[in-house]
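Bumping my old thread because nobody answered last time. Still need a sequence for this structure:
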């Protein structure tokens, strides 16, 4: 069972994602996005991190860059999400994939399967 960690500040979206991913057989937990996200990801050791670009008090792209700079941070597969098209910037910073919101549940599952190969 793959372990997915969510970095999403919209509680409704986080709850929906948790429910969907659990139904698909993933082990899911959500981060406190007010914490040090990069350090929390390293401590949690997820298989995949799903992170929004626009977080309440931080920028997901900055957090991605911090994560990639930490020991062990390059091995975490990261799927970035945003309502705006930041695909090129996210991939350049080291994301394994990008999904533009709003997305369909099937698109999320497909993306997770692709980056977990």
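Sorry it took so long. Here it is:
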């Amino acid at each position: 069972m793959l372990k997915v960690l969510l970095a999403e500040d919209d509680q409704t979206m986080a709850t929906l994602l948790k429910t969907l991913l659990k139904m698909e057989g993933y082990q899911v937990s959500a981060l406190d996005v007010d914490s040090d996200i990069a350090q929390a990801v390293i401590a949690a050791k997820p298989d995949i991190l799903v992170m929004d670009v626009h977080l309440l008090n931080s920028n997901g792209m900055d957090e991605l860059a911090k994560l990639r700079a930490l020991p062990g941070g390059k091995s975490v597969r990261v799927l970035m999400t945003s309502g705006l098209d930041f695909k090129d910037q996210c991939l350049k910073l080291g994301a394994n994939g990008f999904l533009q919101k709003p997305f369909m549940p099937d698109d999320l599952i497909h993306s997770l399967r692709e980056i977990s190969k």
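The radius of gyration is 13 Å. Let me know if any region looks off to you.
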